[in-house]
Amino acid sequence: FLRKLSPYGFHAGFDSDNSSGDFSEANHKVAEMLDLDPHQSNRTGKHNGETEIQENGIKRHRTSLPAPMFSRSDFSVWSILKKCIGLELSKITMPIVFNEPLSFLQRITEYMEHIYLINKACSHADPLERMQAVAAFAVSAVASQWERTGKPFNPLLGETYELTREDLGFRFISEQVSHHPPISAFYSEGLNKDFIFHGSIYPKLKFWGKSIEAEPRGTITLELLKHNEAYTWTNPTCCVHNVIIGKLWLEQYGTVEIVNHSTGDKCVLNFKPCGLFGKELHRVEGHIQDKNRKKLCVIYGKWTECLWCTDPTTYETYKKNEKRGGEPKKSKPSEDVIKSENDEADDMPEVQDTVQFIPGSKLLWRINCRPPNSSQMYNFTSFAVSLNELEKGMEAILAPTDCRLRPDIRNMENGNMDVASKEKERLEEKQRAARKERAKDEVEWHTRWFHQGTNPYTGTSDWLYSGGYFDRNFSDCPDIY
């Protein structure tokens, strides 16, 4: 994963919300603060002896965390959760050992890992191909959760996270807009002004004895500006099993409906529950239909691996042959087919699919390989490993509420578990004290970057971006750390 020289993955926005993402005067000022020459993109060396700069002006993200994952083998989840059966887990304080060193706001940002699918949707002239790409993006958004059994840190009220990736063509901002219930709002836009991606998420967590279930709530909206189209959907339910004994494992299940509000087309995806013998584990099946409910194509695959599509007739014929016991021999598509059907073949490593491939199908998406040491890094993807990166000079640019500045997450990432646990307790107590003080003075909490409103496409309540974040006026941000 590469990004351009402009500092730390968020040239972001040193410009205003109304800019086109060009290198502005504000960028020059920031570059001076960081002792960078904004005009020297072709050079070799290290900035302050730390950051490797290649000749093409691209610098690499870090590829590992500062310290390996802390072992959870000596801790019993059951000893904590046995008193919580049927309760809302967002109100339960969990020991830090069950966390991963990312805030939930950073976890949301992982939706953008496969942003090339949005770019493909923007480039297609055919609305069916656009819906296929959007469907693949919706599935890919949950793929990073595979084997991620650690709990992200609950964001503090007013906490934010920003990320701009010039190499991937987007910038992203999120804010924790409510503590009870916990609601996270986010907004992302293409640096080329080709898309807007936004939403609010407030998962309801429940413990059911052997599993923890996260029921998704909140609408996700993707707007393709060139095509004047808007798509909305809600994520599937996520469940972590074997929280008492055995190896933790995760599944997604439920029906996801993606609606194109411009054409009336709809994609219905069924994330299948595991089943008694695990036959349906991770499986996704569904179809795209037009406004008259005519099936246009069938989609199948696994959210942990890949997604394919084929025409309904081919799919039905294949299923009938399968029931008769005469299913076609499993056919693996060649690398040439994959490259011809996906412009981002370089981002699609060789993965041993366990999906039964139907001849003639088109590949929509394939999961990225994880780093070789991913199991020692909370099963993070390469994208996730980079999210909490904090390099010299960043603190002068970030909002003081940014997740990267949270001392509990920072200490956990560095392997200082005792300090991280104490800092987590301190921050939670500070948040409680601030809430009591506001109640005493009858002062309401005001969000900084988002406001409550109505989703213009679904008519439901939503949190909408107010704008202004990338003007970088952080003078009135709350002191939460």
From TrEMBL:
**Which UniProt keyword terms apply here?**
Coiled coil, Lipid transport, Lipid-binding, Transport
- Listed GO CC annotations: cytosol; perinuclear endoplasmic reticulum; plasma membrane
**Known PROSITE patterns for this protein?**
OSBP
Pfam families with a match to the protein in the record: Oxysterol_BP
Per the record, the domain of life is: Eukaryota
Spell out the coiled coil positions from the record: 410-444
Q: In the UniProt record, does the keyword Transport occur?
A: yes
Q: Does the keyword Transport apply?
A: yes
An example molecular function term from Gene Ontology annotations: cholesterol binding
Location of region: Disordered? 319-350
Residues of the signal sequence?
none
| A single GO BP | lipid transport
Q: Where is the composition biased (Basic and acidic residues)?
A: 319-342
Q: Which family does it belong to?
A: Belongs to the OSBP family.
Protein's name according to its UniProt entry: Oxysterol-binding protein
Source organism: Bucorvus abyssinicus (Northern ground-hornbill)
